[in-house]
Amino acid sequence: MSFIEYGDTIKDGDTAIVFLGHESMFPVRVQHGTVTQTKYGVIRHSTDLIGKKYGSKVTCSKGGWVFILHPTPELWTMNLPHRTQILYSTDISIITMMLELKPGSIVCESGTGSGSLSHALIRTVAPTGHLYTVEFHQQRAEKAREEFREHGVDHLVTVTNQDVCKNGFGVSNTADAVFLDIPSPWEAIGHAKSALKAEGGRICSFSPCIEQVQRTCLAMEEYGFTEINTLEILLRVYNVRTISLQIPDLGKAAEDNSGTGFDSSNPSNQGSPGANLQQGTVQFKSGVPLREMVGHTGYLTFATKS
Amino acid sequence: AMEGSPGVRICEGDCAVLKRGEVFKAVPVLRRRKIIFEKQWFYLDNAIGHIYGTTFEVTNGGNLQPKQEVEETTTETKEAGTDNRNIVDDGKSQKLTHDDIKALKDKGIKGQEIVQQLIENSTTFRDKTEFAQDKYIKKKKKKYEAVITVVKPSTRILSTMYYAREPGKINHLRYDTLAQMLTLGNIHAGNKMIVMETCAGLVLGAVMERMGGYGSIIQMYPGGGPVRAATSCFGFPKPYFDNLHEFPLSKVHSLLSGTFSTETLPSDPEDNALVEEESNGLTDEKQTSLQETEEEPTTEAPMEINQSEEQETMDINAEDVEFKENKEKENKENVREKQMKQWERRKKLTETAALLREKNADGLIVASKFHPTPLLLSLLEFVAPSRPFVVYCQYKEPLLECYTKLRERGGVINLKLSETWLRNYQVLPDRSHPKLTMSGGGGYLLSGITVVLDKGKSDSSNLEALKMEEPSPKRCKVQDLHC
């Protein structure tokens, strides 16, 4: 397995995803001799995982079962240990497309954070591209390096521990794209410009606050970026449910002794043809929105170096 | 990307995209080919050799000329008003008439100068607020300073263009929805993908771009042949197409049931006409040479070996005999050529069938005008376990049914029905707000992950289905019945 190449069977050293049920899963490092506790019982790596096909059902010691899934950056995003607030796949998708990333692309990113976007970028630029990611927090930079190593993608990424606003990305005139998710992106626009290739490079800045966006757009304009465009994207999820709605009793068209309307307490109505205690229902399938949804993650500003 | 390389150059034969503001149009780069774009007529000849991203102006002769970088005249503190309480819109504030402006244009006066003239001849300009003046200038510049940028096609550019110009051709698939599909589907180099789309080949192109020529793609197609009009706009190098296969939907059932054969090939003359009709993603003009090569479907009508092709009956005389002999030779060669082509087609089809039979595809993407349920239920059979699949539908309801049928089938987890909401913003100092218009809808996605299918155990698949559902809420409302 690898985050950048599919494999068929689970191997020692793989990172696999244990799927327990609806929206319940966690990552696991597969290792000979190790056991993993789940609410359905114990999973023994040597007998239950190693050599099994990805996508298999694994029965745990208490009798319940789980599915073992091949890792993908998207599954990793949903399950990674958070060191910072992360970007989710909805934003990651539009960033990837708007930055025109593809195999062979050279892309710069700051800050690395928890590596959510990083894994997705590495997957997209593999096998011939490269990610230069800059993180000013020493421990986070080190943890990121460790994870990339464990996931077999370290040859595609360079983690640099420095302040991008002061020292840039460590490359010049080569990047196809630059991504910024930092508190003061306007301070890094100059460095972003020098990291980007001469013509056609793309830049993206992600900021939660509109004030940050305003300053960043101004800086982009000052540095000669074109096609400056700000947008936001939100995900709406629907639950598929079968809904039953009652048909209301609107009474009978013709007048009768008991008057208009339905009176269930009136004994003369019990058992009479009009007394429809068991109302008819209509069933239909519906895509029901969730009670709450994510209302805001951040504004995405894109531009071109021309 | 090479270090220090200046950028890709515009070459003859390319498919380029013209851009003016937010308006895009894909055109073939051909000499002496008149292009109409945004009410302007011109030839692309002068653009050839320039780098993609260059901005041009249209000269009076209909030729392109690189736009000079002009220093924006730093605004001396302009006279401006505070609000519009005294500004009356009687349509008479501009003193230049239509004819005056036309005369300026005919004289060859540059757009910048025309805008300046308009400002000077507007009686209300100096009463407008600074913001209103700014807006006025932007509006006039947009109209009179006609600059065109020639950009290199990409998924970003083409998906935006198609959504704005010809959304019907792509089932109203908005570009952010396409972006979700590519990521949810984990499209990357090395995959073996199955793609079924009726989006003029845009989705196929997007998948090919993200795979960078690595791996393989099997495109399932309805009717006589796959439509790849948009795909050709991407300008992929030829090797990308070496691992692009196609397979007719009409053969899927026979393949799944083991009765597949190459005896009858899907090729109605009717279907060929359909293919031609659909492949009109490029210019407004009727037929461009690029389009013509693309319209040629990959199928050919089955040849009857005994078909005689003599078109003219002629009296036999000495010259005619020679002519006839040559024609017979020609006919024999045509027949042989057609037989060869058909044999090759059959061979390719058999190879593609073998690829599908392996049932180990790394993912499935569906984006078509057809009801998604039958497509998913059959095509998922070809996908390996623990792989993502994504289905796009313009409407929500078919995906509700699809979801239900998939639950019954089993072998899928993490089913999610979703749509994305996209909003663009205007960001200006003291004038930042969402833009005034917004797309009402960009379609819906149903995504999930395959798992090993437990065949013949309907109980366990029901249990699975229950397990995969959301846990019942504590207070179960009368209306809600979880499916």
From the spread of the alpha carbons, the general shape of chain B counts as flat
Could you state the CATH homologous superfamily of the domain at 155-259 and 342-450 in chain B? Vaccinia Virus protein VP39
Largest interface: A-B, 80 and 81 residues
Strand content of chain A: 25-35%
Tell me the fraction of residues in β-strands of chain B, as a range: 15-25%
Please report the distance between the alpha carbons of the first and last residues of chain A: 40 Å
Helix-residue proportion of chain A: 10-25%
Domain count of chain A? 2
Give a brief rundown of this model.
The complex is a heterodimer of chains A (306) and B (483). Chain A is of the alpha/beta class.
Describe the 3D structure.
The complex is a heterodimer of chains A (306) and B (483). Chain A is α/β, with parallel strands linked by helices and 306 residues long. Chain A is 23% helix and 30% strand. Chain A contains 8 helices and 14 strands. Chain A has helices spanning 45-49, 73-79, 89-98, 116-125, 138-150, 164-167, 189-195, 210-222; strands spanning 15-21, 24-29, 35-38, 41-44, 57-59, 65-69, 106-110, 130-134, 157-160, 177-180, 201-207, 225-246, 281-289, 299-305. In chain A, strands 9-8-7-10-11-14-12-13 form an 8-stranded mixed sheet, with helices on both faces. The two termini of chain A are 40 Å apart. With 483 residues, chain B is an alpha/beta fold. Chain B has helices spanning 98-106, 111-120, 130-144, 155-165, 175-184, 202-211, 229-233, 252-257, 269-278, 289-295, 318-357, 372-379, 397-409, 458-468; strands at 15-20, 23-28, 34-37, 40-43, 55-58, 64-66, 147-151, 192-197, 216-221, 244-248, 363-367, 388-393, 412-426, 433-434, 444-450, 480-481. In chain B, strands 10-9-8-11-12-15-13-14 form an 8-stranded mixed sheet, with helices on both faces. In chain B, strand 1 (15-20) and strand 2 form a beta hairpin. In chain B, helix 2 packs antiparallel against helix 3 (130-144) and helix 12 runs parallel beside helix 13 (397-409). At the A-B interface, strand 6, helix 3, helix 4, helix 8 and strand 12 of A face helix 4, helix 5, helix 6, helix 13 and strand 13 of B. Strand 12 of chain A pairs antiparallel with strand 13 (412-426) of chain B. Chain B: Residues 71-91, 277-310 are annotated as: Disordered. Chain B: One of its GO terms (cellular component) is nucleus. Chain B: This is tRNA (adenine(58)-N(1))-methyltransferase non-catalytic subunit TRM6. Chain B: It is found in: Nucleus.
